[in-house]
Amino acid sequence: RQLKTARVGPSSLRTVGYGVGASSMALLAQGFLCRGIAEEGKAEAFDYGAVKKAVADKLDDLDYDDGSYGPVLVRLAWHSSGTFSVFDNTGGSCGATMRFQPEADDPANAGLDVARNLLEPIKAQFPEISYSDLWTLAGCVAIEELGGPQIDWIPGRTDKKCKHCCPPVGRLPDASRNADHLRAVFYRMGLSDQEIVALSGAHVLGRCHTNRSGYDGPWVRSPTTFSNEYFKRLHDTKWTIREWNGPLQYQNPENDLMMLPTDLELIRDPIFAPYAQAYANDQDLFFKDFAAAFKKLIEL
Questions:
Q1: If we measure between CA atoms, which residue out of 17, 18, 107, 121 comes closest to residue 69?
Q2: 219 is an active site residue
Q3: Which candidate, 19, 261, 268, 289, places its Cα nearest to that of 136?
Q4: Average pLDDT per run of 10 along the chain, which is 300 residues long?
Q5: Which of 78, 153, 219, 239 does the annotation list as catalytic?
């Protein structure tokens, strides 16, 4: 989808440009914003930096999972954007339709009420920001605060008003499937094989929960630090099928880490594998490619 336009004055770059990279700053200077802020001067009057600080201040909580809400905020940004279809131009980051059923009840979104509820006080504090912008910005803040790359985030998404705007359930990846399934899901969004692998690197954050996805455990031992550790573990660990009363997943010899069937496809598939190896070898390359792919995802 083409980005809509909105006219903004140069001074607005001080507020809209918070956390925005040079390429998008140039677009902003020309008056282009993602899907458009309708009213001239509205962007200029709004301080996105204050929203970022409010999100950052909420991340740490020793009583939640591994001590940070960051991973679940990244998942919220991902899942609210990853429903886009190039075939009918539905779904995607513009709309925040996960506020409504049936999308909120999609099994793939189990547990994301934690992230949505966490952000509600920030939405109340800053009513000018759309849910769509808040959710995507929060994901970018989490990535940066957990040590990852700066994401070239642009504001201007608008919210849909009712459940009838929800995309069909079932558009998000199914972790039990194979490389062909991953391609079907990501190609529908207009993403490439390289972007599939780069975005999969977000599995370095967080863990699976049996009461959400049915799977269990973290991918790495430092699940609140963004790095290329996920790709390193894929390559340097002997993964075997876990014997348990749950869905097919793989375990390391110490049985404290896990991988999903779709994770192992990244090193088994002959097209995916060179990208996964490159990211295991070069964290700077992974950060660069992830930042570009995540920016593309949250602008779908």
A1: 121
A2: yes
A3: 19
A4: 32 32 36 39 75 98 97 98 97 97 96 98 98 98 98 96 95 98 98 98 98 97 98 98 98 98 98 98 98 98
A5: 219
Catalytic residue among 78, 79, 135, 239: 79
Q: Which two tokens stand for residue 203?
A: 């599995």
Q: What is the pLDDT of residue 225?
A: 98
Active site residue 239: no
